[in-house]
Amino acid sequence: MTRVLIVDDDPVQLRLTAEVARRADFVPVTASGGEEALRLLRAEPGFAAVILDLVMPDRDGLAVMEAMTRERIGAPVIVQTAHSSLDTVVSAMRHGAADFFVKPVAPERLIVSLRNLIRLGELETEVRTERHRRAGTLGLSDIVTRSPAMHRVLGLTQKAAKSTLPVLLEGEAGTGKELLARVIHGMGDRASRPFVAVNCATTAALEAALFSPGGKFTEATGGTLFLEEIGEIPLATQSRLAAELTDRSHVRVIASTSRRLLGLAQSGEVREDLYYRLNVFPMYLPPLRERLEDIEPLSAALVARFAAEARKRIAGISAPALDLLRAYNWPGNIRQLESILYRAIILSDGGYLEIADFPQLVADARGRDASLKLTETLPLPSAPVHIDSPTLRKEVEAREAVQDRFLDASGDIRPLDQLERELIEFALKRYGGRMSRIARALGIGRSTLYRKLRDYGLESDISDAA
């Protein structure tokens, strides 16, 4: 779930704010002072937002925001304070606060601000990543992960970026090997030089494409050549590539494969000399099913991007739908997650993606019947309508229109006695006219209930066992 850091030296305020966050489906992490907050921010990256008190004895909120800026800790900050002067507001905003509230703040306002900031942060992350991708300057911050399984990968990525050795990226299809290759390139000394990608499994006349005078090796001079699916190179071309890798000063080679290169070398599909030249700096990307902690942040980032592209006002994914995504085994990894989320966003008309927006996952987890039952709840015309019929939209809209029980036909609020009578009638039917049970459910005494029954002429509906 989405973690929020709450910082306040007042234990009562700290507990209240944490409870507000918890009820809104966030995971609150609390700190009773500025120093503790910074320790948590440094040790546990990935907080979606910080709710920060300004006046604290050890290190105040402004000092915390200064340290966050200096250390490039990018979580958005909501300031809460008992001091409402204009100077305080201006100072907080100058130090990077995204929103400002004077205590006590209404829980609803705080939750709305928190959700808006997180959505904005996700969009900004996607925009920044796309900008870095185009500029060739991707870094570790552009890899969305909270999973311990990725900690070793991130550490090796930093080391690989500082060297010029060939790198071998192994992992199932769709795990993000090309992104990792671009990050290694973007963090290294060759970031300003070309990054050239070649899919060895699909490129026609591969040897000419790589080694001709205007080929990919020439195009990548001074930069990085990314050879995707290196295990698919024909044997005749492998000898030429192995020789090229002997003199690797002018091009840095990063190769990837979705099959173990050692197994391909043992089976004779890959030459041993090529294997040893590529296997200098091997890295393994775990599949998505082994890093389920990443489902939520990846989904949030992808929903923000796809919703913006589709011009849909979709705020995120509901908790039950997120549980459904976590329970799936993702044979296609992140690439499959992207595809399923994109389809759900295009077809959804709600503010959040719900379980019903993922019928293919429901069918896999619960069977085809459960998936069909979900689709039955969607609004559909009562009979087949020809493609040329102009009345389809109106018919569907008419079926979806449901009169609000609090309003009359003209749209005015109905009288209270009408609503009360209907509620008592409903309770009489639901509890079989049993007076004690009805009175408890309505929160009134039996004598009050008897009086209302007489007023509304409902005495005949009372059960003999009342």
Protein topology:
Layout: E1 3-7, H1 11-23, E2 27-31, H2 34-43, E3 49-53, H3 61-70, E4 77-81, H4 86-94, E5 97-102, H5 107-135, H6 151-161, E6 167-170, H7 177-187, E7 195-199, H8 206-211, H9 216-219, E8 224-228, H10 235-246, E9 252-257, H11 261-266, H12 272-278, E10 281-284, H13 295-310, E11 316-317, H14 319-327, H15 333-347, E12 352-353, H16 359-366, H17 368-376, H18 392-400, H19 416-430, H20 435-442, H21 446-456
Parallel strand pairs: 1-2, 1-3, 3-4, 4-5, 6-9, 6-10, 7-8, 8-9, 11-12
Give an account of the 3D structure.
The chain is an alpha/beta fold and 466 residues long. The protein is built from 21 helices and 12 strands. It has helices at 11-23, 34-43, 61-70, 86-94, 107-135, 151-161, 177-187, 206-211, 216-219, 235-246, 261-266, 272-278, 295-310, 319-327, 333-347, 359-366, 368-376, 392-400, 416-430, 435-442, 446-456, and strands spanning 3-7, 27-31, 49-53, 77-81, 97-102, 167-170, 195-199, 224-228, 252-257, 281-284, 316-317, 352-353. Helix 13 (295-310) packs across helix 15 (333-347). The longest helix is centred in the first third of the chain and has 29 residues, at 107-135. The radius of gyration is 30 Å and the shape is elongated. The two termini are 48 Å apart. Residues 378-382 and 385-402 have low confidence and may be disordered.
Descriptive key words:
alpha/beta; elongated; 49% helix; 5-stranded parallel β-sheet; 12% strand; 466 residues
- How many whole angstroms does the radius of gyration measure? 30 Å
The biggest beta sheet, please? 5 strands, parallel
Q: Give the terminus-to-terminus CA distance.
A: 48 Å
How are strands sequenced across the largest beta sheet? Answer: 2-1-3-4-5
Classification by helices and strands: alpha/beta
Mean pLDDT across residues: 83
Which band does the percent of strand residues land in? 5-15%
The tally of strands reads: 12
